[in-house]
Design brief:
single chain; 390 residues; Cytochrome Bc1 Complex, Chain C; 2 domains; three-stranded antiparallel β-sheet; binds protoporphyrin IX containing FE
């Protein structure tokens, strides 16, 4: 008897394996709705990236030291000395960015297919929580190398907590573990990043996947008129959809390794609390909120700014209960689609303004200085300067 047979009969003698096998079989051969396409792979890609982040994160933990004295040097050690340390550090750093991007794409897919509508409101709400946890992962992980940019970006980021009405000062203190960003902050971010967030996210992802399996993927029929996909139609989950997911997974891993080799993340200079670098900017996923906050000045203005930044998240949570329309097909929901596209364009535009603010740019052959708020000011060279330049 082969080893696999022996293991099977060992388990059969002790448990009711037939029931387990039936459930696995049913799930594997489940039929997905006929419109299931390449756009439906972003959920499992998010899962793949979460698993990759967990594995590379555990590897990083072996040599990482979460203290202001050792953190920066321990990352340098991992990159320069540890076998393949440079590779798994890069895969972790790029994986974080790609995970946020892929989760966003998955969210857009489910939004445009009306998958948040009854009976999938809870799948959507667990998704919004997952999205918030994913960017919090990014925020807390960014500080861990304890370099200049991370230190000052965290100082600016946690400072904005102070603008939250009523509890701002307390919130900033809670995040920093004091009045300024110090080793206390590093400890807090470390505990959040490696213990609290991973377990919370794991729990939420398990619930999310269970809910998704219980309701199956949404068809494009009207709410209340959805029929289960019959066994002889639709797309078989295994092997057809799984094969698609496999192809995209291999491509994603190739992109991760290519980026890691060709565009490695720098470690940067160690943090220096006494010297502020010019133009501190957060990572791309915080740029829209960062830019929006700049338009609100003064104590009351700043409060309104924070509220304005929270509105999109509140809308995301409440969306299944605000959009009560029965249609799911994007062509039959022009308002919801227009709202989604408008939100996306506004976020991209604000993010772009945040990216180019306080830099010099050339548009149509002319040089501009882009100010803090994103307004362009043409740079007119004095004649003397121009002659000197020649
Ligand atoms: C780590 C992050 C996430 C993982 C691993 C994940 C995983 C999945 C998977 C595997 C599916 C089924 C296939 C697919 O639709 O792509 C799915 C469906 C779904 N997800 Fe997510 N998801 C994540 C984040 C999110 C977010 C941020 C949202 C929205 C805010 C969301 C909302 C939904 C909804 C509404 C469905 C049902 C889709 C349907 O019925 O067609 N998910 N998720």
């Amino acid at each position: 008897m082969g080893l696999s047979h022996r293991i099977k009969s060992f388990l059969d003698d002790r448990f009711d394996t037939a029931t387990a096998r039936t459930i696995i079989d049913q799930q594997a051969h489940k039929r997905l709705p006929p419109h299931t396409s390449w756009f439906h792979v972003f959920g499992s890609l998010s899962l793949l990236l979460f698993v990759s982040q967990t594995i590379t994160g555990i590897l990083l933990l072996v040599y990482y030291r979460p203290t202001p004295e050792d953190a920066h040097q321990s990352i340098q050690y991992i990159t320069a000395e540890v076998h393949f340390g440079w590779l798994y550090r890069q895969i972790h750093a790029w994986g974080a960015t790609l995970m946020i991007l892929v989760v966003l794409l998955h969210m857009l897919r489910t939004y445009f297919h009306g998958a948040y509508k009854k009976p999938r409101e809870l799948t959507w709400i667990t998704g919004v929580l997952i999205f918030i946890l994913t960017i919090t992962f990014g925020f807390t992980g960014y500080l861990l190398p304890w370099n200049q940019i991370a230190f000052w970006a965290t100082t600016v980021g946690t400072e904005s907590a102070n603008k939250v009405p009523y509890i701002g000062g307390w919130l900033r203190y809670l995040l920093r573990g004091g009045d300024a960003v110090t080793g206390e902050t590093l400890s807090r971010f470390f505990v959040l990043h490696v213990i609290i967030l991973p377990w919370l996210l794991t729990g939420l992802v398990v619930i999310h996947l269970l809910l998704m399996r219980l309701n199956n993927l949404t068809t494009l029929e009207r709410v209340g008129e959805e029929k289960p996909v019959p066994p002889d139609s639709g797309i078989p989950f295994f092997p057809v959809h799984v094969a698609k997911e496999g192809v995209v997974a291999v491509l994603l891993l190739a992109v991760l390794v290519t980026l890691s080799v060709l565009a490695p993340w720098e470690i940067g200079e160690p943090a220096d609390p006494l010297s502020t670098p010019p133009h501190i900017k957060p990572e791309w996923y915080f740029l829209p909120s960062y830019q929006l906050l700049k338009y609100f000045e003064g104590p009351y203005g700043a409060m309104i700014g924070i509220v304005a930044c929270s509105v999109p998240f509140l809308l995301l949570f409440l969306w299944p209960f605000l959009d009560r329309g029965k249609e799911r097909h994007p062509r039959k929901r022009p308002l919801a689609v227009a709202f989604g596209v408008l939100g996306l364009v506004a976020a991209l535009f604000l993010g772009y303004l945040g990216h180019i603010s306080e830099t010099e740019q050339t548009f149509f052959g002319k040089r501009y200085h882009i100010d803090l708020l994103g307004w362009p000011h043409e740079i007119v060279e004095e004649q003397g300067d121009a002659e000197q330049a020649h």
